Amino acid sequence: MTLIVPFDGSELAEAALVRATEFGNVFDEIVVAVSVIPKGNTDYARERGWLGTDDAFDMETVVSTLHEQVTSLCPSANFRHTVVDRRAPPGSIAKRLRKVARNEDASMVFIGSENAGRLVTAVSSVGGSVATDTAYDVVIVRHRRPTKISTLRTASAYDSPKSDFYYPG
Q1: Main-chain dihedrals φ then ψ at residue 78, nearest 5 degrees
Q2: What DSSP designation does 38 have?
Q3: 23: which of 99, 110, 149, 154 is 20 to 30 A away, CA to CA?
Q4: What digits encode the pLDDT tens for the residues 27-42?
């Protein structure tokens, strides 16, 4: 099973990735960050910080930027990207994310969105659409804190298990 994180590079997407990685460490699950990129949409890429203000659209640059952001936050996370048309119709990004979640056999999807939790429907977020799929559980991350993003880079995986309970021999 896999933990999926829709990843656009925003602070809440970063927080969702870190939380998914924390869960993945505890439950021994693979974490996959997934970015959906509108092909050739320079404005969309610039708005998200994938390109500089004067840079022309370059798919390799966009993918590299996102991949580096994912691996710098959570080195153990896998990264996937998928491409939609430049002027993809509403719902295309969410549809691709749901498809990846199904293909990766997702057990949970971690969505970073400050507005996805309003009964999990929002016009400006893919969160509502991704959350409607019943094939996986959904975790909505609305706040960057309390996750300690900087410490996860150096944190070791689950070291040595021990029980808080005493079992008589």
Answers
A1: -90, 160
A2: E
A3: 99
A4: 899 999 999 999 999 9
